[in-house]
Amino acid sequence: MNANRGLFWLLSGFFLLAAVVYSVWNYLVTGKLEIVGSVGILLSAVLAGFIAFFLNMVNRSQGGILLPEDHDTDVDDADPEMGHFSPWSWWPFIIGFSLFLVFLGLAVGIWVTIIGVPLALIAIVGWTYEYYRGNFGH
After folding, report:
1. N or C: which end of the chain has fewer CB within 10 A?
2. Which residues contact 67 (CB under 8 A, 6 or more apart)?
3. Cα atoms found within 13 Å of the Cα of residue 126, Cβ hemisphere only
């Protein structure tokens, strides 16, 4: 995870520098600022910074270095439970399909988006409250 954090911080700095160089260079050549490319490269820097910040927070919440990154440990020394997952849940598939409909509606017609948005909301609520009812209720 330390390598990933460093890589994304490096990418964020690179994209930030590239956005400045691109904007200045384009302004000097054409005499006007090209907004789409400048904002696109700047948003790439922001995205890489968000991912690096997230990885930093995950690393801090896990208490520092992970066992797979420590060279003095074996593979089986790590904690086998890395998170909570629902292998029987169909809600992620329904959310993915409803978001597919939402974005398809942006390309094809707004009526498909009107069908996809309520389905996405129902799927999000269903996935959120999955453990509060039925066999797995608390």
Report:
1. C
2. 73, 77, 78, 79
3. 13
Residue 23, CA distances (Å) to 9, 13, 20, 47 in order: 21, 15, 5, 19
Report which DSSP code applies to 88.
Answer: T
Q: Which segments of the chain does DSSP mark as H helices, in order?
A: 2-30, 35-61, 91-107, 110-128
Largest separation between any pair of C-alpha atoms in the chain: 66
**Residue 5, both tokens:** 């954090």
- Give the 3-state secondary structure of residue 82: coil
List, in order, residues 6 or more apart from 93 with CB less than 8 Å away.
Answer: none
Global model pTM greater than 0.70? no
**Residue 120 · residue 93 · CB < 8 Å:** no
pLDDT digit string, tens, across residues 69-123: 666 777 666 666 666 667 778 889 999 999 999 999 999 999 999 999 999 999 9
Buried/exposed code over 55-67 (b: 16+ C-beta within 10 A; e: otherwise): beeebeeeeeebe
